[in-house]
Amino acid sequence: MLGWNAQMLERRCAGTLARARRMRSRKTADREHLAELAAYGLALVGISIWMPGRRAITFRVGLPPDILLDDTDGAVRGVEASGRTSGGFSALRIVLEGTKESPRGKRSQLTERSDVVEAHVSLWCLAPPVSLLLQVKP
Amino acid sequence: MIAEPRRLALLEAGKLKLAAKARLAEGGEAARYDAAVLYHAAARAEQRTLLVMEAPSPEARLANAIERCACLIEGFDAMVVLEIAWANVLIASFAVPERAAAAMRSRIDASMSEFVHRYQGVLAKTPAFKAAIEADDLGRGSRSLDREIDRFLKVFPGDARIWSIRSRHHLQAGDIAAAWKAIQRARELMPEETTYVGLELDLVPKHLPSARAEAQLDGVYTQIERGDANADVCFGFVGAALQLAQKGRHREKLLRQALDAAMAGFRAAGLLPSDRKIFRVFELSLREMLAGRKPTVEILYRCGLGSLATAAKQADPMAIVLSRTTSFRRLDAAA
Questions:
Q1: SS3 of B187, please?
Q2: From A128's CA, which of A49, B44, B126, B147 has a CA 20 to 30 Å away?
Q3: Minimum Cα–Cα distance from B75: chain A residue
Q4: pLDDT above 70 (res B253)
Q5: Chain A nearest C-alpha distance from B167 (Å)
């Protein structure tokens, strides 16, 4: 089970607790960004635990993978992250593989890219709590 | 191995995007605008990541165009996405094999389609604004048009051009504080865009105390002296210096600086069709003022702007030109 020390986080990055409080309490049209943000955070935790020596160099919003580990021209390596608030493992499977009607899941989006040589997918669901980190390429 | 300047630019772009996302998740009234500012900064950092690359491949160029466009879509900037960023994606796509381009564009194509749908949805609810955009006639504000512009800016708070137009309309309505706030938003979103610098300059003497306004003009004048200022900045400077001179503070110095700005504007590259005539009107008028004479409308005829002279109710050629110039330095025939 993943946990954290809120007071220590506040000491390392002032304002963290107030920001978290605002995220929990404010009503906003952009709340879907919360799950996305949490997915990024969890992916970073996954990278630091299961990919020792690898570092995130940047984030992308326009084309997968979301988190780049290496941006060498024609040989991109990275981690695609995604979060869902519900649906558990079956929701994550749809994110990864797509559906019959829409078969283009994260896996196919990454495997068909000629400029991506190594890709991982980090998926997370809030309720029930499930998370996956798997290598989809090569 | 990624070169250090590129690594740092990538790091900056990544941090800005994360900060923008966190700001959106945090919520609050200004969240969307604040996030838009961060996404615009991320788009500029992304551009630098390409500039520092050694001989980027067509795929790297397309990836960069996609990422910049995505930042501006996330940054709620309708005009730049529709008129520049998406065009860059399409142009970069031609250099990449069709299959590879389709794979790279799978996410941005869907985002763009949703973005266009959202834009069309807003325009359907803002008919006066839509008509003004289609007629390229956003120069003059009205209560109904401004209400619709505010509605548009709620959905697209990252559109610097529309903020600058809103600023102009606030100015026409006599609300200097709101005009200043709106032009500051445009400047925050696109600090590199000199059109907004020129518009801000026009507001400097109206909004800031005289001493501060003069100090700001002195800072801009060093750019003009170096030959670094373009027509937007020179135009804004002349109007601002003239306003300050009329307040009686260091009149001679300000008029001389304005004359230099008028001549620099005349020589500047990338002028709009009427720019040379406008800057010539400024130059001749300022020479008259510095000689202790009152400039007359004859100057407008000498500079090929006689049609403005016949329609004007006043006799000051500079005031006529300034009052007939729209937000983007074009002469407004309908005014």
A1: helix
A2: A49
A3: A61
A4: yes
A5: 26
